[in-house]
Amino acid sequence: MSFSPELPYLNLPSLNVLKTFAVVAQTLNLTHAASLLHITQGAVSRQITGLEVTLGYPLFLRQARGLTLTPRGAQLLPPVQQALALMGEALQRVGSHPDTLRIKCPTCSMRWLLPRVIQLQNDRPDMQIELTASIAHGVDFSNEHFDAAVVFGRPPESQRRAHHLFDEVLTPVCTPDFLPRHNGKTAVADLADKTLLHPTRDRRDWLLWLREEGVQGLPSAKSQHFDTLDLAINSALQGYGVAIGDLTLIEDDLQAGRVIAPFPLCVASGASYTLLYPENPTPVLKVAIDFLNEEARLSREKLSALLSTSHRLVSTG
């Protein structure tokens, strides 16, 4: 009797197509994605259309302001990102390139980190960088095989090799027409009948911002909870509610006008994103460190400009 094992992965889309989907979903802009992937915008569009035909459902909504993920697209993105990261890690273990850098990062930082890593690889084809996203924060270089890590939380005190990237600054975000405006302003009372999108189960980010606004408790009974900030932001981009977002992580979305920060109040939570690495970094790692530090400096400048012109910052840390 012959045995034919089931091989469900034989019918999967190609790796390049899935990578293109992940980049387009992060940027929500075909031109930007094409630049990061180093292919034409037409090639990006054809790959996404072909993937949607293969799957049998749309992944993006094409609108005048640009692309937004459909609910199925938003649901597909995290496992695709995780699968790409796991595949990269497995390939590295089997046959490591001597200049391959392995970087661990929290899932929430992928909105900021992934486009920049792809840009660095396009600028330096000799470099190989593998990102491993994790919902766990922190890293143990003695037991985990990473060359560097981006960690989120209170700034580490005992790490000698640490570079501060940027602080977490929280404020509500939504699509441009989601909330009403009264003489150019939005009030907390306007949230009463809206769905609040929470990046954590304990709702702490929303409650922190509301407390600094002088409001006790949530203004709306409608809410949805997510395991990561990235999922909450993607849902806000689809117009499903108002998320509490980190201004630096969504700087590209703000600049493109896909979302707005309708309230002047911004709250520095006291947490930050920090780049860690072990002793004696290799020359290749030094290049990556210098690049990410410069990108973080530019992001801090953009945040400072935003806060100085249209928002006010309150620090709780």
Automatic annotation (TrEMBL):
Listed transmembrane segments: none
Organism: Rahnella aquatilis (strain ATCC 33071 / DSM 4594 / JCM 1683 / NBRC 105701 / NCIMB 13365 / CIP 78.65)
Any one GO molecular function term: sequence-specific DNA binding
Family: Belongs to the LysR transcriptional regulatory family.
GO biological process, one term: DNA-templated transcription
KW Transcription (keyword) present: yes
Name of protein: Transcriptional regulator
Recorded coiled-coil stretches: none
Matching PROSITE patterns: HTH_LYSR
InterPro entries reported for this sequence: LysR-type_TF_proteobact-type, LysR_HTH_N, LysR_subst-bd, WH-like_DNA-bd_sf, WH_DNA-bd_sf
